Structure to design on (408 residues):
């Protein structure tokens, strides 16, 4: 089966745009982790908790696949081309979901980034309106709780890629008015005012306008999201921000040395603002081998790009190379919870959450292929001795606290 990914890595040293992953081989090998059996106790805790997923790319995926233009399209039905729909959200016990307007970095060269963000935010509103029996827009922590208490799924809005504002604070204000309650400062490419983790630095972190963006977000009550930002950008934001900051879908570099994962130093810095890190579910960012696999892919892609191949030739060469690579190592739910464990030991359970990145990733851990799998995280936390209160904080309580503090 062929897997593709919408999001891209671009290495600006020679203008190369690289897909993050090509075809994925079947899982193989043995690990210390294994499959999990759900218990009534875990399911009870999961049902009682407010379960909030901090990052899901469904809107852009719907537009990319043209699903919204198909007659009768409904999230109330199983969507085989997505990792998200209402039945699977219900199965996963998800009470609140942040859907992001993902703006591809190439818009910095082609234009249209602001338009793309607005289109996706309007789509989120449209989806909420057409599925009003199950979804309701939330813009405050209080609304999240109220909507969940009424048995609906709270739909929140985020923006992925600060270049979407096209260097205009007025555009940022418009996003807030449309319900956006966080924005990542970068995606995989450095912007005019903030360095990205996958790109060469141009500003040494935040430029002066970047500091204005952070202060404006603080003033509005919009959370600054540091996923994809460079280490120096994270440090600068922590210095400038007067409110808690988050990383909505990032994992631990000490376990998996992916370029986009966070060092212990940065995790502590984010927690020091009162903020939190929400673990990404993509196995490439979870298993220890992930960083080396990621780097090998980037290196081979660079070598092929130097040959000036056509896009078709490049894809064929990459497909052939991928077929010769060892299968991806197994990734279980336990690998995901290893990242939670690490951060809890580092900064306490008050600063950890879940940011799946579903519909922006090609696949999830075993037993968690889509949004239906969240109960397995609860089970694994329970298996490791976490208290009910701490599990509830990680599942969603921490995000409510952080958003409340940002609102203040």
């Amino acid at each position: 089966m062929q897997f593709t990914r919408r999001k891209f890595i671009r290495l600006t040293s020679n203008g190369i745009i690289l897909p993050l992953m090509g075809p994925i081989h079947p899982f193989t090998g043995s690990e210390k982790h294994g499959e999990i059996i759900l218990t009534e106790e875990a399911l009870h805790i999961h049902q009682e908790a407010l379960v909030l997923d901090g990052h899901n790319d469904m809107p852009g995926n719907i537009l990319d696949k043209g699903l919204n233009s198909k007659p009768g399209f409904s999230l109330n039905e199983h969507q085989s081309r997505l990792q998200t729909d209402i039945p699977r959200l219900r199965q996963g016990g998800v009470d609140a979901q942040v859907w992001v307007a993902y703006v591809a970095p190439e818009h910095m060269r082609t234009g249209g980034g602001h338009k793309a963000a607005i289109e996706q935010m309007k789509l989120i509103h449209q989806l909420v309106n057409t599925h009003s029996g199950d979804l309701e827009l939330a813009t405050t922590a209080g609304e999240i709780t109220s909507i969940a208490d009424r048995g609906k799924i709270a739909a929140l809005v985020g923006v992925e890629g600060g270049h979407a504002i096209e260097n205009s604070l007025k555009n940022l204000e418009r996003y807030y008015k449309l319900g956006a309650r966080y924005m990542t400062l970068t995606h995989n490419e450095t912007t005019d005012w903030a360095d990205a983790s996958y790109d060469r630095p141009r500003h040494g972190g935040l430029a002066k306008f970047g500091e204005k963006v952070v202060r404006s977000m603080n003033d509005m009550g919009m959370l600054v999201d540091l996923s994809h930002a460079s280490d120096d950008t994270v440090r600068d934001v922590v210095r400038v921000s007067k409110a808690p900051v988050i990383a909505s879908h990032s994992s631990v570099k000490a376990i998996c040395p992916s370029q986009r994962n966070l060092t212990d130093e940065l995790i502590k810095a984010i927690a020091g603002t009162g903020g939190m890190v929400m673990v990404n579910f993509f196995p490439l960012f979870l298993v220890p081998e992930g960083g080396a696999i990621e780097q090998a892919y980037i290196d081979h892609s660079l070598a092929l790009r130097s040959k000036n191949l056509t896009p078709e030739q490049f894809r064929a060469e990459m497909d052939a190379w991928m077929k010769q690579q060892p299968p991806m190592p197994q990734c279980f739910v336990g690998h995901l919870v290893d990242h939670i464990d690490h951060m809890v030991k580092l900064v306490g359970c008050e600063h950890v959450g879940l940011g799946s990145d579903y519909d922006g990733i090609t696949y999830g851990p075993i037993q968690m292929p889509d949004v239906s799998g969240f109960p397995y995280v609860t089970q694994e936390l329970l298996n490791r001795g976490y208290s009910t209160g701490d599990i509830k904080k990680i599942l969603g309580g921490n995000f409510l606290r952080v958003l409340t503090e940002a609102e203040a």
